[in-house]
Each structure stands twice: as structure tokens, then as C-alpha cells.
Design a protein that fits this description.
The protein contains 1 helix and 31 strands. It is mostly beta strands.
């Protein structure tokens, strides 16, 4: 394996672009002693308290060369896979306790905010957004602690989170209002992060991703703005103190995490998806085109399919369990209601032969097919959003033959009766004619 990976970026100044290259060491192999992480207990203790005392602010006594005065630097990360900033972190400064403060702003639901993983022992600390909630996790060697907020913090507003830990006990305080406490299981009390780095905004592609709530082979990096990062009272300068970075940029006015579809492409969101008996899907969209395919999946073996489309300003939800199509149509009084260039939400649900469309969380349309023993859309095929690949033959009941032209955000889907889970466009298996993070900026 290579000893190091070089990251190069262009930093634009008032005169001319300058290229900077940084070396970040390839992680050393991880020891299997003591007990490997994957065989350890997964018991988690998490407690939310309504009016606790907030963890005290530390006296400035940083163990790395940090400033006791908050710097004025801000930096953004572009959300592409492998985007990050890396900073030195002294192992003794987090061994028994730590106090970390981070200020950020984003609209992304799933993203890595902070990450550090030991090289000798697979101990870690993680701060991430999952379904819009903050999750603080740490592993001391005898099982993880995982503290999760009850509120959402992906609202494009500035937020400050303080992570405090002493031995097994941890506290996460957000905006000096919400406080979550937790305790790691077992008897180990030290966090061993020898010879590692603290990553902000994402994880390099050559660093193992362990301890995250979010799934996926490639962790979702942050499309976000960061303004404060401190450790035990000492502040990092987000530009001059970084030792490596990739995919950084100036902070943006808006961090709406929508994807732009150019009218001739598609996103393969889930390569092998089963719709089943019960199904829920929701999206937010913004367009001035009154026709376009929003979501589509069809069995390659039988007649079963499911589709969501705009057609001449109408929202149409169609599915076939095998006993004939069921069509649910929302027809607005104003044909341009859903294609007026403003954000709208569409939520569709299927339960057996019954289907519903909910528009902007208020207007509901329902339809029920003929009673049938066929109640499941039997698919194990790609779920497409915004269009389908060329030469795909759509079911004849689908009227919109063209791809969607506009913005789609907050794509959520589930089969069964569970809560819909958001799938980020950065995690799509394949995209054609789709630009990430290009709407609302």
C-alpha cells in the first residue's frame, strides 16, 4: 500500500490561483488486540435530560499549538466524497477527557462533521448528522456510546455543538439548549487516538470509516460551512492549522442540498429495490416544467411497476401489483401550481391496492384498485429518480416520457411500515445529467 496520498487544491486569492499539496499518511494496519471492534459489545446507553447543567467551558490550556483567541476564519466543504480538512490532535489531550466545540451551518441530512480513529486501537470519536439529527459517538474499547439529539439541525442556520467527555461519561450540548448525556459500556475509560488526525467535514477515501450511524461504502461528506473548532479551550485556525484538505471552498449563502436535473438524465438511487406491499416515498421539488418523470421502478420479470410523475401539471402516482394498474391523480385548480418555480413536497404511499398522494403536507388524494389477491409490487430492480436510462421502455400507463427538469431535494423512501429514510444523491449508484448541490445557491 502507498505510504501517503497527496491532496492538491487550488486556493484563489485576489491575485492568482495557487496550488497547495498536502501529504496525509496512509493509515497503519489496525491491531486485533485487544479485542477487535467488530466482536465487541454493541450495547449503548443514551439518556436525554430536559434541563441539565451545561458542561463548563474549559480554561484555555491546549496541548497542541492552538490559540486561546477564536480566529475569524470560516471555511466550507463541497460535500463531494472524500472532502475534508485534517488537523493534528495530541493523543494525551483526549485520552481521559476532552471538550470540543464546533460551529457549523448546513442543510444536509446525512454528513460526517468530525471524525478521528486510532491506529493502534480502533477507538474513535464521531460527530455526524443522521436524518438531520446530531449523533455523537465514541468507542473506548468495550463498546460504543452514542448520543443523539431529538431536534433537527440541518436547517441552513448556524449551530454550535459542545462535545464533552470524562472517562466513560459524555455530554452533547447544542446551542446551549438541547443537552444529551450518555455513558459507554464496559470498564475501559481511555480514548486512544495515538498518531492520528482529527478530520472535519468528511473522511479521506483511504481512511477506514468505523462507528458511523450512516450506512454506505463511502461516508457522506459535509456540504457545509464551518466557523469554529476548538479543543480543550484552544482554537484551530481552519485554514492555517490544517495539515491536509480536499474539496474545500468558500462558505455559501445557502446549503440547500438539492440536486439539479437537466431534463435528460436520471439518478439510480437504489440498484436492487423491493417495493412490496407497503411503500412510502417523498420528495421536495422545484421546477417550471409541468411534465417529467420523478421516480420509476419496474420488474424485469413480471408486469409489476411503480411510478411518480408530473404530467401537464398533474401529480400522478401509479403502481401495478400484477392485477392491473392503480392510478392516483392530484389535479390542481391552477395547472402551474406544482411547476411555478417554487418548492413543493410530494409524498406517496401504497398499502396493498390502495394509494395516496399528499401535496405540500396538506392536500390528500386517494385511490383504491379492485380487490385482488395481488397486493405486492414484486421488484428487485433499480429505483430511478428524475428519469430512466436511454432505451428504457416505460410501462404504457406512464404518460411523462421525458426526464425531470428542475431541482429535487429530500428524497426519502421505505418499504414496509418503517419511517422513510433519506437517501442522499451523493450516494446514488449512478447519475447522468445531475448536478449535486446546485439548487438554491
Amino acid at each position: 500500500m502507498p505510504l501517503a496520498t497527496t491532496y492538491t487544491e487550488a486556493v484563489v486569492s485576489s491575485s492568482s490561483p495557487v496550488l497547495y499539496s498536502f501529504l496525509i499518511p496512509t493509515p497503519l494496519p489496525y491491531s486485533t488486540t485487544p479485542t477487535n471492534l467488530f466482536t465487541r459489545s454493541s450495547v449503548t446507553t443514551t439518556t436525554t435530560i430536559s434541563s441539565p447543567s451545561i458542561a463548563p467551558s474549559p480554561t484555555c490550556a491546549p496541548s497542541v499549538s492552538l490559540s486561546c483567541t477564536p480566529p475569524s476564519t470560516v471555511v466550507g466543504t463541497n460535500g463531494n466524497p472524500g472532502s475534508f480538512l485534517a488537523f493534528n490532535i495530541s493523543a494525551p489531550s483526549v485520552l481521559n477527557s476532552f471538550n470540543i466545540t464546533l460551529s457549523f451551518r448546513t442543510a444536509t441530512s446525512n454528513a460526517v462533521l468530525l471524525y478521528s480513529l486510532g491506529k493502534v486501537y480502533p477507538d474513535y470519536l464521531v460527530l455526524e448528522l443522521y436524518q438531520g439529527k446530531l449523533v455523537f459517538s465514541y468507542q473506548l474499547g468495550s463498546g460504543p456510546a452514542r448520543l443523539q439529539s431529538s431536534k433537527l439541525y440541518n436547517d441552513n442556520a448556524n449551530h454550535t455543538v459542545v462535545l464533552w467527555r470524562y472517562h466513560r461519561n459524555g455530554t452533547m450540548t447544542v446551542d446551549r439548549q438541547e443537552v444529551v448525556t450518555g455513558t459507554s459500556p464496559g470498564t475501559y475509560t481511555q480514548l486512544n487516538l495515538d498518531g492520528t488526525l482529527l478530520f472535519l467535514g468528511g473522511i479521506p477515501l483511504n481512511v477506514p470509516a468505523i462507528g458511523l450511524v450512516q450506512s454506505g461504502a463511502v461516508p457522506v461528506s459535509s456540504f457545509a460551512c464551518f466557523s469554529t473548532l476548538s479543543l480543550n479551550g484552544g482554537y484551530y485556525n481552519l485554514l492555517s492549522d490544517r495539515v491536509a484538505s480536499n474539496g474545500i471552498e468558500q462558505c455559501r449563502v445557502s446549503y440547500i442540498s438539492a440536486a439539479m436535473f437537466n431534463g435528460s438524465g436520471y439518478a439510480n438511487m437504489l440498484p436492487s429495490y423491493g417495493v412490496g406491499v407497503n411503500f412510502n416515498l417523498s420528495i421536495s421539488l422545484k421546477t417550471k416544467s409541468c411534465s417529467g418523470l420523478l421516480a420509476y421502478i419496474a420488474s424485469a420479470a413480471v408486469s409489476d411497476f411503480l411510478a411518480l410523475e408530473l404530467y401537464n401539471g398533474n401529480a400522478r402516482f401509479l403502481f401495478d401489483n400484477g392485477g392491473g394498474p392503480v392510478t392516483v391523480v392530484y389535479s390542481p385548480l391552477n395547472a402551474s401550481e406544482l411547476c411555478n418555480g417554487q418548492w413543493h413536497s410530494l409524498a406517496v404511499a401504497k398499502s396493498g391496492v390502495s394509494g395516496t398522494i399528499t401535496v405540500d403536507n396538506s392536500r390528500v388524494t386517494k385511490a383504491t384498485g379492485l380487490s385482488s389477491s395481488y397486493v405486492s409490487v414484486n421488484t428487485m430492480d433499480p429505483l430511478y429518480v428524475g428519469g430512466v436510462p436511454k432505451n428504457t421502455v416505460l410501462r404504457s400507463y406512464v404518460l411523462s416520457k421525458q426526464s425531470f427538469n428542475g431541482c429535487i431535494d429530500r428524497f426519502q423512501v421505505t418499504n414496509g411500515l418503517g419511517t422513510p429514510a433519506e437517501v442522499s444523491f451523493s450516494q446514488a449508484v449512478q447519475t447522468v445529467g445531475v448536478s449535486l448541490y446546485s439548487c438554491g445557491v
